[in-house]
Amino acid sequence: MVSNGLALIYHSQYNLELPGHIFPAHKYSHLYNRVKRDPVYASFDILPPKMAEEHDLELVHTKEYLDDLFSYDHTARTMYSELPLNRSIVESFSYGVGGTILATELTNKHSFAFNMGGGYHHSFPDRAEGFCYLNDIAIAIRKSRESFPNRKAVIVDLDLHQGNGNSYIFQYDDNVYTFSMHQGNIYPKKEDSNLDVHLEPGTKDDFYLSSLYESLSRIKKEFDPSIVYYLAGADPYEDDSLGELKISMKGLKERDKIVRKYCEEIGAPCVITLAGGYARDFRDTVEIHFNTIAAFGEK
After folding, report:
1. Which CATH class is domain 6-297?
2. How is the chain split into domains, by residue range?
3. Mind listing the pLDDT tens digit of every residue in the chain (299 residues)?
4. What is the Cα–Cα distance from 253 to 157, expressed in whole angstroms?
5. Nearest 5°: CA angle at 102, between 193 and 182?
6. Residues in CB range of 17: below 8 A, 6 or more apart
7. What whole-number distance in Å separates Cα of residue 231 and Cα of residue 141?
């Protein structure tokens, strides 16, 4: 593993104003400001990504879907998104994809590369879903194969919701291992991951963390990746407005440390993305995401 610590990626275009919408699309700028106020991380260079190019998006998404998306047309391909569809939205997602592509490139120099956006794990090749128009993780994995054709990747998805888009996209790809640990009785319609852990409502720290540890131990025996993609969703939190898991702030910090330790043990760099987070107190969502940065930034 390379040993140059943590790289941070952010673009102001990640932010959206969605008044009254449950998706807190302004959390990105609040997280950026939280980093800039911190005595440790304020001095870190935060790298801006480029907007993903169409040929990169076509590594995963169909031309028909992209035509609808970039025409801002409400069609059978775009209608399953729960977000508005306009130029600023599409540009925001394109920059988010660019951030995960850049994070992947930076793992050539850094042990950990943190895109302060991304994690759009519900989008499918031919359609939008949930709060996701473009699948940044899948695109970044396919893009990296231009330089590393046989690279093996594991997706560790710890968002509240199953990463159904990634599970579908990589279901026949032996070089990608999909792992999703999520609340089992809620959205979305489930796809088959290589490893799914369906958690019951009310799950607390001890069971959650032991399940994560056991799952990563199993993956170590079954799969040998050269890169890890970690979707560090803030929504398993006990006060999240969309979920019924009861994971404390402390438990989520420990979760992040377990994932970091797994990466260090297998000697693989890690790309981290934010994914979801809908805490009743918006400040909790920002703090959970910041804690993930701190977990991967510690010496």
Report:
1. alpha beta
2. 6-297
3. 444 799 999 999 999 989 889 999 899 999 999 999 999 999 999 999 999 999 999 999 999 999 999 999 999 999 999 999 999 999 999 999 999 999 999 999 999 999 999 999 999 999 999 999 999 999 999 999 999 999 999 999 999 999 999 999 999 999 999 999 999 999 999 999 999 999 999 999 999 999 999 999 999 999 999 999 999 999 999 999 999 999 999 999 999 999 999 999 999 999 999 999 999 999 999 999 999 999 999 98
4. 15
5. 25
6. 25, 26
7. 14
